[in-house]
Amino acid sequence: MTTHRLGVGVLGLGYWGPNLAKNVATSKECRLTGLCDRDAARLEHVAAEYPGVRQTRDVDDLLRDPAVEAVAIATPVDSHYGLARTCLEAGRHVLIEKPMTRSAAEAESLIELAERKGLTLMVDHTFNYTGAVTKLKEIMATGSLGDILYWDSVRVNLGLFQHDVNVVWDLAPHDLSIMDYVLDVKPTSVQATGVAHYSDGLENIAYITLRFTGGTIAHFHVNWLAPVKIRTTLIGGTKKMIVFDDMETVEKLKVYDKGVNVVKEREGIYYTLVQYRMGDMFAPHIQNVEALSREVAHFARVVRGEDRPISGGDAGLRVVRILEAAERSMREGGKEIRL
Ligand SMILES: NC(=O)c1ccc[n+]([C@@H]2O[C@H](COP(=O)([O-])OP(=O)(O)OC[C@H]3O[C@@H](n4cnc5c(N)ncnc54)[C@H](O)[C@@H]3O)[C@@H](O)[C@H]2O)c1
After folding, report:
1. Ligand 1 within 6 A of 43 CB?
2. 198 close to ligand 1 (CB < 6 Angstrom)
3. 39 lines ligand 1 (CB under 6 A)
4. What is the secondary structure of 23-73 as a DSSP string?
């Protein structure tokens, strides 16, 4: 029996859209049935690689073609809501780039619309389809780290300064979506500070702190103005700790059997003795998979009802809620915002 391959149109062919187009075109689960960008030069440049695939500068024209059963949206963030709404209203499944929308209210409205129409709405949280994050989730799910004490991530480089969003909306969705996928607990508050060193008012460096019930704390450092590229996350548990270094080519994850044992000494006097536990380190094998290829195939299976979404609209909304609160906190001088 042959499986129906989902007809996908890619909307927005700037920096990221061509990656989606390539992975849709090479997927066994999908077919590339349309390409759309309002910029004629971008459209022509990308469409030249896919002869025979319908190309258009107009979304409504794209949606007139019944072969476009789903749309992958890779346009700037401010346009996500309007374009996703148009596609859903036209009865198309939607895979939308991160961050899902500019506000939680917009994300909620898209989720409601997709549910009402019986359509699939997913968000491209690319990292959650990588071999490293898949393995990280697997390890965390065993509970072998013990209670999670902290999550500490750094994502910095001499980055592409964006013109429409600050560094929080650009880079933090990656780390927030990984954390959302891997940690069972959800944050209760957000505090953020950041600075726009240049005149456009968009912060190019930011520090975000999340708090959770039970004492877990998470910190995210995002920066477009670093001389080197760092992509490191430390996860500390009471039993074990993990270092996820995405700049490593092979051993991206290292699990350390290190920690402290705390003992209260001397009855009545109470002073705390910290004993260090220095155990082994192990680097698990990580499958080498192309994240976007896994993701588009998964999207097609979700549409067919064969899989539950790894990054559905609900995950997109949780990330946007944190981004929105972080932005508010930055505007209010680092005030703690309850979620
Ligand atoms: N998942 C990832 O790792 C990842 C990486 C980079 C970017 N992104 C996301 O992808 C999205 C796009 O980012 P980018 O860097 O590719 O942007 P970009 O500016 O390079 O490209 C956007 C394209 O969309 C087109 N466009 C805009 N509005 C349109 C409309 N109404 N109709 C048709 N075409 C339209 C523009 O002409 C442009 O070619 C953003 O949401 C960004 O956050 C995700």
Report:
1. no
2. no
3. yes
4. HHHT-SSEEEEEEE-SSHHHHHHHHTTSTTSEEES-HHHHHH-TT--EEEE
Decide if 329 contacts 191 (C-beta within 8 A).
yes
Q: Which residue has the CA at smallest separation from atom 4 of ligand 1?
A: 16
**For the chain, what are the domain ranges?**
6-127+291-312, 128-289+321-338
Kindly report, residue by residue over 214-228, the tens digit of the pLDDT.
Answer: 999 999 999 999 999
- Considering the domain 128-289+321-338, what is its CATH architecture? 2-Layer Sandwich (3.30)
Q: Residue 114: is its pLDDT beyond 60?
A: yes
The pLDDT of residue 200: 77
Residue pointed to by tokens 């991160």? 98
pLDDT reading at 16 higher than 60: yes
Query: Per residue in 67-76, pLDDT tens?
Result: 999 999 999 9
Find the 18 Cα to ligand 1 centroid distance in Å. 10
Three-state secondary structure call for residue 18:
helix
Closest CA to 147 of 58, 237, 37: 237
Q: How far is the CA of 193 from the centre of ligand 1 (A)?
A: 26
How far is residue 149's CA from residue 130's CA, in Å, rounded to a whole number?
A: 25
Q: What is the dihedral of CA 226, 232, 233, 236, to 10 degrees?
A: -110
Lowest mean pLDDT segment, chosen from 80-94, 169-183, 271-285? 271-285
CATH number of 6-127+291-312: 3.40.50.720
- In angstroms, the CA 239 to CA 254 distance is 14
pTM: 0.96
Task: Answer whether 82 contacts ligand 1 (Cβ < 6 A).
Answer: no
pLDDT at 33 over 70: yes
